[in-house]
Write the structure tokens for this entry.
Amino acid sequence: MKLISFLFVLFYTQIGFTHDAGLSSAEMVLNEKGVDISITFALQDTESFAPMDKDGDAEVTASEREASKPEIAALISKELEITLNNENVKPFEIANVTFDAQNNAHLLFHYQPAATSLKMQLLFLNKLPEGHKQVVTIKDATGKNLSEKMLTQQDNVIELNLAAGEKSSMFKDFFVLGVEHILTGYDHLLFLFALLIVTHRFWSAFGIITFFTIAHSITLALAGMNLVTIPSTIVEPLIAASIVYVGAENLIRKEPKGRKYLTFAFGLIHGFGFAAILQEMNITSIETGILVPLFSFNLGVETGQLIVTSISLPIIWWLHTKPLIEKYFVPVSSVFVCLAGGYWLIERTIL
């Protein structure tokens, strides 16, 4: 019973932490005249350093957005340190600040002179919430990829020396991001936990994990390549609903049948949830782009999932060997699953 109480405390403390840290992107294009830098933020991120709601009515109007453009441009320009050919330079031209229909802010800067070596430091990352990541891509004028890197508050610098022929670390960056995503994706983990707590044998668990992997890999690829797009306002509530459904089925049916097929259906939905992180980073604009980050991110998700299941399954199966614990383990855990899923469902549809 102490273990069950511990699970309750764990679920309760994690209920409010199901969303990823902020993500943004930047692209540097080297040409014969200089360097063009485009930066994209979600509008909610711009509120961290340039609040747009000036009248404090909790609503940002079109006029408030328009009025915020100079402040956003000035602040990013100040917090963006660019070194070309070993000389620190200021923007030669701030072309514009625009907003799109997906609630993103786009900034475009032009620097001179043309560069054979460059360094960019994103000081503004320190003004954003902890854990924010910025994927940066450097290209030449023909669109050829020269370098890519994931920047964080702890590592906010990217450098390139064209003569040195530096290699990209994008595979590693997206792999690590995938591992982090699943390990901090408490809604996805809780869904998997709810599926696995009724298993007693290796092959039943193997079928569930395999079908979940296949399903979310399919929709992750489709969404990551922008072939299929479903708004997060639909996907996130559906993910919460899938958690409630599995928890309720555990309570109603003593030995749920056909779990792997149910897992496949819901796994398709969870794949769109995984893909949201790649869509925010606009991986389709990366030269090596769709395939490398998509594959390495998915590999990271699977690695993280394997780590979690390899630790949790032996514990689950051991609990099933204890008659007193087994009697309460599935129903009590399933009640907690329904409560957490129900909370997320309300939060994502009403709150």
Notes: Residues 1-20 have pLDDT under 50 and may be disordered.
